[in-house]
Every structure is written in C-alpha cells, then in structure tokens.
User: Fold these one by one.
Assistant:
Number 1:
Amino acid sequence: MASHRVRPKTAGTYVRRGIVLTYLFLLVVWPVSLIAQHTFGNGFGNLHTALTDPAVTSALRLTIYVSIWAVAINTVFGVGISLLLTRYTFPGRSILSALIDLPLSVSPVVVGLALLLAYGGTNGLFGPALNSAGFQVAFATPGIVLATTFVSLPLVIRELVPVLTEIGTDQEQAARSLGAGPWQTFRRITLPSIRWALVYGVVLSLARSLGEFGAVKIIGGNIAQQTQTATLVVEQKYQDFEQPTAYATSFLLALIAVAALVVVTVLRPKENPDGD
Amino acid sequence: MGIEIRGINKNFGDFVALEDITLSVPTGQLTALLGPSGGGKSTLLRIIAGLESSDSGTIEIEGVDTTNVPAQKRNVGFVFQHYAAFKHMTVEKNIAFGLEIRKRPKDEIKERVQELLKLVHLEQWSHRLPSQLSGGQRQRMALARALAIQPTVLLLDEPFGALDAKVRKELRDWLRRLHDEMHVTTVFVTHDQEEALEVSDSLVIINEGRIEQIGTPDDLYDRPASDFVLSFLGPVTMLGDRMIRPHDIEISPYEQAAIVSGKITRWTRVGFEIRLEVTPDDVLHPNPVHVVLTRTEATALGIHEGDQVWLRPQVGADQVTS
Amino acid sequence: MTTTTTLTAGATRRRRPRSATSLTRSSGLGLGIALTWFSLLVLIPLGLIVIQSADGGWHTFHDTITSPQTASALRLTILQAFYVTVVNVVFGTLIAWVLVRDEFPGKRLLEVIIDIPFALPTIVAGLVLLSLYGPKSPIGLNVANTERSVFLALLFVTLPFVVRTVEPVLIELDPEVEEAAASLGASRFTILRRILLPALAPAITAGAALAFARGISEYGSLVLLSGNLPNHTEVASVRILTYIENGDKAGAASIAVILLAVALAAILLLQLLTRAVAKRG
C-alpha cells in the first residue's frame, strides 16, 4: 500500500496544490454554489413556487418512482451477475464482463434511440406485440424505467466485482466445509462482506437514476405531467423563462447528488480496515 | 475405515494434477501429505473435503461413499492456509458458525464454544475480530472452528505455511499434543519435510501427481524407495555413484579403504555443525562431496581445510544406488 | 466515483485463482436469466441501431454523415472531445497527484468535488455552468452559444475520468522504486519521465479513452448552454435527436452507430490495457 511517511514539501507542492484548487474552484465549486445562490436569492420563495407547481411535483414523483424501480432491478441483477462473473467460469465470461460497462459510455441519446427501436409502439421490434398485450413501453413509465435501468446498470456491478475478487473464496469454502448451503453461505458470509460495496452501488445508482436526461427524454416523449421527469422539467422551466423554478428544482436534484457523494465518501473506508 | 481413496484422477486442462491416487488413511492417525509445491497434494486434500471434484475415482470416509456428497454434507473439518477467517464475525461467532448452521440449541453452542476457546487458548480473545489477532491466533481460531462441528476427519492445508518460523514450531508441537488428546483422523498438507517428519504418524510423499511412497517417518527416512524420496526428506550428496546423506559419511585423515579420497576445499561452520566440501582426486568425478560432522568430531579427528581425507559410508547408513 | 477502472494488478496477482468453478444447475439458470435481461435491455436495442443504420444501405449512411450540418456536428464533437481529453490528461494527472501525494486539510472534500460532475444530473450541470459562464455571468465571461461552451461543458462532465483511473495506480506505486532511482542518481525530472510516467501511462490512457467516449456522447449539459446552433454549436447527440424528431430513424441510427463504435473502441482499449497491466503486475 502507499506509504504514509511524510514527504518533504517543496515549492512545487504548493504550486501544484494551488493550480489544482483554482482549477476545481472555477470548474466545479463556484458554478455549483451559484445554484444555491439562485435558489435562495429571495429566501424560500423559489423553492416554494417550485414545490407548489403541479408540473414539478408530478415530475419529482415520477422520478422517484422510476428511480426506485431502476435501483431495485439493478441491485438484484447486479448482485447476481457479479457473483456469476467472480465465482464461476463459463464461455464468454470476459466478453460479458467487458460489455457490462457499455451502458456507461453509450450516449444517453443513443440509449433512447436504441430503446425506441426495440420498444417503440408502432414499429419497434417488440413494441407492437407488447402493445397488443396491453403493455405500453415507449412514451410511458415502463420505457422511462427501462432507460433509467440501462444507464445505471453497471454501477452496482462495478462496486461489487472488485470486492468479491478481493475477498476471494476462502471464507465461502470454509463456510461450506462447516455445513452451510449456498443460500446460507451467501447470506451469512458473502453478503456481510460486500454490504458496504452494495450500499455504495445502490447510492450511486440512485444518484445516476435521478439525473438521467437524454434517454428518458426520447423514450418517454417528455409529456408534461405524464412522462416528464424532474430533469426534463428543469429544461422546460428554463426555456419557459421560469428560471427560478428551474433553479429550485435543480437545487433539489443537486442536493441529492451531493448527499449521495458525501454518503459514499464518508462511508467508504480509506483502506481495508481488516486487512490480513 | 478411516479415509479410503481409490483411483483418483484430476486434470486441469492439459495439466495432470493427480494420477490414479489410491491411498488409505487409518482412523485416528495423523497423516502428512508431503511433497514439493504444485505436486498435487493440496488438490487431493480439497477433493477429500469436496471443495474440488475429481475426474474419476472414489472417496470413502469412515465407510461412507462421499464421492458425490457436497462439501457441506461431508462433516469434514477444513483448515485453510490463509485462515479463511470470517472477517465480520468475532472469534466466538466464527467458532459457533458450524454449530449454528446445524441449528444446535443455544446453550449447547455456548458451552461447546467455551470448551474450544479454552482448548486453543483464546478465552480472553473471544470478542475480538479476526483482524485484531496475530496470525498464529487466527490459525488456532480456524482450527477451533473446524473442530467445533466434531468432524469425522480434520483436513489441514499447509496450516502453518503463512506463519513465521517460531510460531510455526510452537503450533506444530501444539497440534501434535492436540491430536494425541482428540484422536480425530487428521490429514495435513505440507511442503516442509521437517514439519512432516516431526508431527505425523504416517507420511505420504506426493510428487507430480503421483504417490512416491507411503510409510512411517522412520521407514521413509531410513528406507527411501527412490532418489526423490531420499533427496526430499533431507540433504543428500553423491559419494561415488551413490546418493547418501552428508552426515552418514565417515571421514578420516588417515588412508583407509575408501570410496572417495580428496582434499577439503571448503570449510563452513554453522553453530555446532561443520559443513565440508571434499573435492575428489579422481578427475573423472570432480564434483565435490558434501560432508557434515559436529565440531567435536572435527576436533577429535584433527582435520583442517586443505587436508587430504578419505571418505566412506558409515555403517548402517541408508543410501540409494543411482 | 464509479469511474474508477482499477488498473492496478493488485487483485489479480494474489493467489492462484482456485475460486472460479464451472456452472452448477442453479447458477446456470441464473446466468440464463441475467443474459436474457441484459440482451433485452442492452444488446438487442443497441444491435437494432446497427441494423437500422445499415438498413438504408451504404448510401443513406454516407449521405447522412456527409450532409453539411451533420458533418459539421461530428467535426465539432470529435474536435472538442479531443481538446478536452488533452486538458484532462494534464489536469487529471495533476489532480490525482495532489490527491495522493499532498496532505492538507480538506483533502477529503476535494474527493467529493471531483465526483460532483459525475453525480450531478447533466441538465443541472449545464444550468450550473450557465450561471457562471453565461449571459448573467458575475465575472463577465459569457461563452454561451459558442464553441467554447461545448468545450466547457465537456470539460466539466469528463473531470473525474482521468483522476479516478490514475489515482489508484498512484496509490499502489511503490515509493521505494522512486527512492531507488534517486539513490542511483536520477533527478526529479528523470524519475518523472523514466519511472512515474511509464507506470502511469496505461491508467492515463484508460482515463483518456473514457473521457473521450463520454465527451463525444454528451447531450444533457449542452442543451441549455450551447444553444444548439446548426453548423456552429450543434453536437452529434443533438443531431441524432433532430433526426428522431423528424422521424428519420435511419439517419439517427447512422450517427448513433458512429458514437457506439467509439464507445466500444474505448471499452476494448480499456480491456487490453487492464490485461497488459495485469500481466506486468
């Protein structure tokens, strides 16, 4: 691990520190802090306006509903696939593990288009069949859930896989030799060892889910009070010259995002606390 | 009875890990599987435990065919080289784990855990986490955890391999005493011949996936079946065309009926021991012969570096003609 | 935060991986379910883009991406993403260096700040930048509706990538290697050039690939900031959206397939680098 010996500080240390702090201040800190300023420029008025606007409240409700679904799906799927990737060998494992990361680098607009091509109501691949079964995906909540699940899919897996690899299988094998079945081994040995990683994964997925914009705009259709999520309402309010409402809604979203980060940073141990 | 292993084969891809292993481990004995790293001994142990499956062959534990029984139903105690401590549980919880899985009554678990804590001298550490223990303590905890389920057989995979020399020695003595008290059929894997010779009732030498020889430590040391066994169980040197242990060579500064004569070309003292290299006069066999004797013997013989000496096997020395 | 692509060989060089076993019946079933879900959600929809882009034949594809407005959007996107990547290589490495090697109060706060661009909804990111660098800029710096606004937005959203890939490698770097080099008479600059940069190069490249892939695919943060002026500040993602809104899915897919190819290339590069590092480990 890194040595924690004290390094001598030279002039270069302070120059580097100064450059980095200035850069981050101008690029991130100052701009982000301006949201709070714009939101609370005249007290709680803007926040109140936003929270009594039916377009905003319905969008917030939809965003929360969609995010909970997306996070739940990704948690179950993420735990399962992480175990498969780290505990089993099967043909195509390395390809799968590479493809899992794909949703992180695909443009949200491309995600929206892809889902539209698959689940579009009139000429999507599965859309018409699902429609006639009474299940509308595109331009409806299920489509938004799909898009949100897509973009936040790798987050849980990326947290779990390194931890599962790191803890190895010794403890699980010991549990088996002591008589524990697969489910008991998972619940009593594996799950406690990965619980923090799982918490980070879930928190990060939640932050990502709340913030998705491009993909849900395309697959959801951005219909006010129906498929308009919180991020979409920000865009609309800004363009409709209701900027205080846009800022207030943004502030709420940013608050959740930053809170998620703080939770993760505070919880994440600096180093493995029980190294062996 | 005990463990009956018949015709076990195991391949990892092209690599033959075990080839037609047949072995019977008697009940109540402490058996060591000894051999160089990568020779297949750990694989065999893991197959006995059910942590790995064999390609063919059968395993019987105390008369029950367990070949297709999953690990969690074999009632085997397994101790891992790197302890495999459950890091999120206290020492007490670690030891209780197998009993809790078996849904034993709380009182019984408590009592049994206390018993085991005492046995492995960890009473005052019962509420600590494994990360707060030393390596030796963690391994004792792992052993207590394996013993808690009253296993039919106890399997130890290089149990002292990750510990430093002094702790290793202590734990080795302790394991032997423990075994004498408990008499549970025990198989342990090691690559340390001294450890195997000192602790075990019987020894199985495994090399390149095959059993080289089975016997008591004395048998194997005195009557090795092959060069490999001879050289693996201790230092050897070539005296003429024979392999022999350096301390089994009789050295004399006076001319006598000898297999090799030559000059002492190197003299190293390690504590009470003197290690010599004798370069033979025979130019056709110029490789130096290694001889070991005590300081007292060397003084009594009055030999020094550069002296001409005559070498022959001591009476009763074991040797293998190659 | 999640941008950490651990390029350290730490985990892989541990013990012999005895761990992985072949599939059992229940894990095989699990794999089947997982693959079906992954295919329905990700692989089939993305595959349809490739099919759709090829549907109109080579001509449609060619005409789409060479139409002046689209070509200009692609050029702008790639160029700005490239500039941003270069800046990230320099500043990202520097930030990672300061985070690992420097000690000062509030350093942990910095860790949070680095990840803000990743966690902040992109539309909010655009709004945030607009408030400092837009028409009502308190410092009189207005880049809104110019090419520089694209650069700025991409710089913001790609900030974490290089930092988060370089940081873990820098932590794992054994300071004894540097000390050994110093004891052999190497100057600080030589140590940087001959010891540190070669060790960090795979991580920097990986971070750069991720940043570039993210840069060319950006949409949300540009919506409010760049004004989406055709032939001027309109990026590839916005072009796709326009095609979708006009009902031209083949056109949309043509551009999408290019973005998809770059995303795949970035991931491939990442895999190769990870493997190379693991081997070197």
Number 2:
Amino acid sequence: MKKYNFILTILAATALISSCGNQGNNNSTGALASSAAEKAYVAPGEHDEFYAFMSGGYSGNITVYGLPSGRLFKEIPVFSQFPTSGYGYSEETKPMLNTSFGFVPWDDAHHPDISQTNGELDGRWIFINGNNTPRIARVSLSTFETEEIIELPNSAGNHSSSFITENTEYVVAGTRFSVPIPQRDMPINEYKGNFKGSLSFISIAPETGRLNLDFQMIMPGFNYDLSHPGRGKSHGWFFFTTYNTEEANTLQEVNASQNDKDFIAAVNWKMVADYVKNGGGTKMATEYAHNVYDEHTHTATSTMKKEVITVDPTEVPGAVFFLPTPKSPHGCDVDPSGQYIIGNGKLSADLTIHSFDKMIAAIEGEKFDGEAYGIPILRFEDVLAGTVKSGGLGPLHTEFDDKGNAYTTFFISSEVVKWKLGTWEVLDRQPTFYSVGHLMIPGGNSRKPFGKYVVAMNKITKDRYLPTGPEMEHSAQIYDISGDKMELIYDFPTHGEPHYAAGCPADLLAPKSKKIYRLDDNKHPYAVTSPDQAKVVREGNEVHVYMSTIRSHFTPDNIEGIKVGDKVYFHITNHEQDFDVPHGFAMIGQNTSELLIMPGQTKTSVWEPKKVGVWPFYCTDFCSALHQEMQGYVRVSPADSNVPLTYSLGE
Amino acid sequence: MNTKTFSIGLVFSLLLFACGGKEEKKEGFSVDRKKTTEKTVESTEPASEVPASQRITLDNKGVGPIKDLPLDPNIDQAMVDRGAALFKTNCNACHKVDKRFIGPSPKGIMERRSPEWIMNMILDPQLMVEEDRCAKDLLVEFNGAAMANQNMTEDQARDILEFFRTLN
C-alpha cells in the first residue's frame, strides 16, 4: 500500500514536471526545458533531414554525415589512397592521383562546395580543393565517387578554393602562397615584386561537369586566403581575401601582420572571361595533369596538359579592384542577397562588411586611394557598409540563414555569434568546444539557405570525449537555429580535420543516389558479363585473369600455370545486381590493397608473385552465409617451369 | 563409442600430417557423412521427406508480385532467345542447364514448379525464402546459398521463363 502511494506520488510529480517543461519550450532556454536530445535524435531506421559533406583536411577525403544525428555514413576517397575500396590502388583509379610531380597519393582537402543553379543548391556535384599539390576535384552526388581531378599550375597552397559561381559556370581556386611564375631558380629574399599569385577559373561543362582550366589571373604576390562568389546582383564578381600584402618571405607570423589593412580583391570574372573569349590573355607553356574517371568503363585516364592562358589584370581595366579590409582578413563571405561582402580580420575583434552597391558607386565615381601594382585601391570609407562590434576575438567565417541573420565563428574566443544583416546588431552568442574554424548551415553560402541547424567545426577537442591518447578526432557541435536563440543540441567527433563543409536537404540527393551499376552498361575493356567468358590469358610475362564473382564464388577459383616473375592482373567483375552486395578481392602477399567491387562493377588489381607455392585469394566483404567459402587458389611455379596455364571452377 | 571413433580419426589425421613431406599423391581422408535432410519439429507435411529439388509443387504459386500467369501453348522463340541471353549473363554463375551447381538446374523445372512460382523466385528471392516453404527447403538443400536478386524486370523474368520451357 505504502509502495503504491509512493509510485502515485512520483507519477504525479513527473506529470507536473513534464507540463512545466512544455511551457518552458517557448523560451528555449536550458537543455532540460527544450529537450536537446529529442532534436538531435533520429530513431533507428529513420533517416536524417540533411546531408553534411565535411572536408577531411589532412585525410585528403570527404566524409558524409547525417544531420541532425551526426551519424557518419561514408568516407569518399578524393585525393588519398583508400584501401577500404581500393581507390588509388586499383589499376583503374591510380591515374586519378597522377600529377605533373608524378603519383601523389595524398592531399589536404579543405573547402567542399555543392553545384548551384540560379544560386541555389542543385545537388549534381560537389567540388573540393587539394591544398598541398594544387588540385580541384569533382565528385558525383549520384555515385558519391570522385569523377575528375584537375591540377593547377602556377599555384601553391591552393587555399582560396574551391568555390562555385551561382550557375556553376566556374569553380574558382586561388593560391595561398605566391611563387615565381613561371617557376624558376631565384633567391627567396627577392620575393617582393617578383613573386606572383594566381587565381584560377576552371569552367564546368553544364551536362557532363567536365572541367577545363579556362584562364589564370596573375596577381600581385600576396597570399590569397579565401574567396566566395557574388550572387544575385553581384553575380559575375568574385571576392578574395588577401593577407601578407607586405610581401614578406620569412617570419610571416610577424612580418605579414604589419599593415593595418590588407585587401579584399574584387574580380569581375565575367569581364575577364569575355576578354579571354575574344582572344585576350597570354598562352604560357606549363604542365598539369587532368584526370577523368568514366562511370561506364569504371576507369580513369590521366592527360598531361601543356599550356595555360594567363591574364595580367592591368590589361583588363575595370576588372579588378582592391577593397581595404582590416587586420589580415581570413573568411570572405557573401550574404544570400549578394549585397554584403564580409571580411573577417582574424587579428581583429570586429567584422568588416562591405557593400556591393557602394563598391560599384565608388568604381563608377573613380574614387581611388592609389593603386597596388596597377590595380586601383578603393577608399575603405567609400565601400564600408558597417561593422559588427561583437566583443569576440579572432573572427574567421560567416554563414547565413534564410531570415536575414549571419553567424560568425570566433577562433580565439571559441564561440559562434549571431548577428543581423543591415543593423549589425549582435543577437546571440554560444560557446564552442573549442577553437572553432569554419561553420556550416546547409545552403548557407547560397541564395537559399536552409536555416535550421548550424554545425561548428572545431580545431581543438581536449576533454570533449573519452581520451584516446595524444591524437584525437576533432569535435563538431550542432546548434538548432530555428528559434531566436541558438541552442546546442549535439556534439560529435569528425574524421581528419574538417575545414569547411557543405550541406543540403536529404531529398535533393537521396532519390537519385545510384544503387548498383548495371551489368549491361559495363563498358570496362576487361569486364566479363557472363561467367562463361571468364578466362586467363598470358601475354609474355603478363597474365590477365578475367574473373567474375557472385554469391559466393569466384569464376575461376583454381588457376595454374602462373610463374614467379609474372605480373598478374586480376580483372574482377561483380555479377550481383542487387543493392548493397559488393564483393571483395584480396591476394596473399600482394603489394597493394584489396578491392571492393560494387554490383555490376569491374576493378583490377595487380599481383606479382615472388614465391613458388599455392597461394589463396578470398572475398573480403561478408557477402552471404557462404562468404567464408568464397575463396580460390593460384598455383605459382618456378620461372622456368612448363606447367600449362589452366583455370577452372568446380572441376 | 563416438569418442573412440573420433580418437581414431585424430590419430589417422596425425599420420597424414606426418607423411606430408613425401612426394606420393595423397587421397586425403574421407568421412562417411550422409547428408541429413532437415526435419523441423513443427513440420507435419509428408512432402518434406522428398528433397525440395525433386518435389512436384505445381499447385504452389509462391509469394510475390506474380499471382496468375496463363501460358500460351505455343512457345515464343523471340522471348526464348532473349531469355537464354539473360540467363547466360544473370543466372549462369550459379545455375547450369546440364548439371546441379550452386543452385539446381533449370532443366525440367516446368514439370516441377508453376510459372508463377518461378517468376516470383526470380523477382523476389528474399521474400520467397522467407515465406515459401519450398523455397526455404531449397535454400537448406543447397547449403544455404541464397539466390541473388538480379533486379530483373517482369518482362525479363518472363523471357527467362520462356527459355525454361524449352529445357526438357
């Protein structure tokens, strides 16, 4: 009886607490009242509302997460070899990582950007830059595979990249390091006046997405840090933050921070593109790789290009202007209307907002404040729209919602600050954990943001999770921004070092996500489309194994007549035509990775047997109840043996 | 008794290993293991005594999209040709016309299974294995090698069926 009463009391108390909680929701203050867990919770079997594509930084790849759950769906290999799938190891994908420096199996991936139509995300492709050995990659958002990588000559530290103009006319890439152009042997301390910075405009074919390095602008030797396209009224312009306008070549930490103001370079790319189209620019001999993956042959080819068109900005009057911007600006962001260009001086407490209209008026009035290497400098006061006095320290990057608000990260004071466009009033601030770099709102750098969540990507993790030794994954926080105040709802680790990220509504991509490769579309030259075509062919000391797989056997699974010193190519076609039934292939002692072959796909792995014996291979992906039976043997005989070449299955 | 047999076997295996270094051809060991047909407790159907591959289940239409499929008495050769080509690309890895392989041979299948059952098995093998008794027993008889869904359209499955009609 006593116990019964006790339970009743508890029940009543709970009911009271619950009802109070509901009322409290309106203010959305405090995690208890608003149930942060419920907002981030996506029930088992349910799908997330948004995709988030995070750059992997030094992993060289892109990771795909769901929002609001923070669940990791996939890592897409882009610039780095990836043994999980065999990317960069298989014969078909090795050409993707070819450069003018030879095979470069890694890069530092920074800023993904999704293709746009009329300034809105269209979900066809995502682009990302390789920072170290300058490259731009295009990834298909139906296969989630890297389809193209183009190297950039005359660039070094490809950082102010890869940003998309509002109809995906160009993917734009600026150099962080200025270098001698063309490269030559010269003293480092003769940097000033001699080194140059290149801004690359890579056109995108509307149907195929095929990339072409249309032209490079050869700019003064500053560091071009970040960039964003104009949109709406400012479509046709591109804006780049610069630092090291001092043109220092050593102890940059001090020497590149001397000037009170650096510049935002405003480039009228439409004017320059027309100039080039009409025969302007200078052809320069150079060398860069262009690598293209064909979805139908499942094979990449690498072509070495020998020439690029360079444009001297002083030859195109009216195309380039410098907007003075305080304190070594880092982030360069344009609001959804295209009116405001935000430059965040990373050594400042304030944000500087330039007005596109005022910039045009100043240009038309020819109100210049001198020039730098022949490029007109506009007067700061003439282009300034306003300043956000936030009280934070170290502003880096800004994204936008669909209600006229902007959200800026502050690295030094570890916070996200929400402010109002036009009034420059600070509306809210929330701490991040810790030292936030970029932030991302799905569509937050387009004309149509989806202002429901913002993800803050932090540089320092420290105590956020269980410790895993000195090396930890970086932390990210997700905030609900649908109300007046931002609300921290979840915190999750991210792989590599995400710099920027891009997000979009799930329904933009999910319905067109490819499930299988159709076997009857397979144009791979070594594919076998029916198991009776499986064969083993010797051409000198090269042996080509045309092999097929289906649950759960390889055809053939016994091969004899291979000799030490042979180069054996296993061309494996997965004959499954069902969603999510890949097969793997691994050969003992192989000096490369396994392969993971999707349904209907063909991949090739090379094996150079070094030892006499009978050596097994097997399927690495648990494919069926009989997966452990999915194996085979290769008999390797001495180099001078006469064992005939034979192959079989079930004999 | 069992323990004793096992011990003898073990000694025999050890002997085999000891001989491994020599050149002479080994026949390996063999154990007389007759395959037992699964007898599930709840089963009362006498049909389960006959291996599923030999059972005649012409009245069973199976489970899946095909409910009723009357066949024209004349065989359509164009369909047969298309079906044979599809069979070669999509089925041949596991089904051989002339022998039992990973799965059963399609030879004579029209005398054992209804057209609807065959079509359903091609179109949704997973559902069939879950809900159709015969399909379930076949999976067990064929060592748990589950039939792959090859994403055939109904027309493609129908062509394959027409090809099966020529295999008697």
